[in-house]
């Protein structure tokens, strides 16, 4: 069984200590940081499987830290969950737009959080055990075993959710999926994510592969379509 590593980032020392204690009790390796800037440097060294991060912190807030972490190739597959007192919808949207996997409003319930994390890692382990799968369609090679997209011979870096979204659509080309279906299959039913999150991720995938392959079907959803050039 893999020894999962978790980085806890919060400027409230009591919350950090409480989370560290409970997570270590569950068998996780835990490091901590008290601001976004330190979190980025720590993440590069520690290479955590999961980052639990507050939004309101000194030096650099959590949203900006998340954005910068998502730019690091070695941290592309790291899960990021926000634990924050900010309950406003715009804060949640901002978090998902920079690459968050989940958004939990404080106060934190340690046992519920531990169950959520355990479910996340179980889901990840199940995916890792699935048979290798590579989609080749036109100039694209979408390799799920290494989470790598190739356009021709050139590798293109995609964050985890963007890759999974492209893979899911390309696996059944020309089939139209609603936003709800994409949310359920990519983000799962145990995470509350706004439908707009799908639109944001579609836009980002298009920026990297071009606008001609993922089609918007107004009032319905999205489909992948490839025509030989």
Question: How would you describe this structure in keywords?
Answer:
single chain; 229 residues; alpha/beta; Arc Repressor Mutant, subunit A; 2 domains; 5-stranded parallel β-sheet; 4-stranded antiparallel β-sheet; 42% helix; globular
Write the SSE topology:
Elements: E1 5-9, H1 13-25, E2 29-33, H2 36-46, E3 50-53, H3 62-69, E4 79-84, H4 89-97, E5 102-105, H5 110-129, E6 134-137, E7 140-143, E8 148-151, E9 154-156, H6 160-171, E10 177-178, H7 179-187, H8 196-209, E11 214-217, E12 221-224
Parallel strand pairs: 1-2, 1-3, 3-4, 4-5
Antiparallel strand pairs: 6-7, 7-8, 8-9, 10-12, 11-12
Helix pairs in contact: 2-3, 6-7, 6-8
Summed up, what is this model?
With 229 residues, this protein is an alpha/beta fold.
Report on this model:
The protein has 229 residues and is α/β, with parallel strands linked by helices. The chain folds into 2 domains: 5-128, 3-Layer(aba) Sandwich (Rossmann fold); 131-224, Arc Repressor Mutant, subunit A (Orthogonal Bundle), CATH 1.10.10.10. The chain has 8 helices and 12 strands. It has helices spanning 13-25, 36-46, 62-69, 89-97, 110-129, 160-171, 179-187, 196-209, and strands at residues 5-9, 29-33, 50-53, 79-84, 102-105, 134-137, 140-143, 148-151, 154-156, 177-178, 214-217, 221-224. The strands form 3 sheets. A 5-stranded parallel beta sheet has the order 2-1-3-4-5, with helices on both faces. Strands 6-7-8-9 form a 4-stranded antiparallel beta sheet, covered by helices on one side. β8 and β9 form a beta hairpin. The longest helix is centred in the middle third of the chain and has 20 residues, at 110-129. The mean pLDDT is 91.
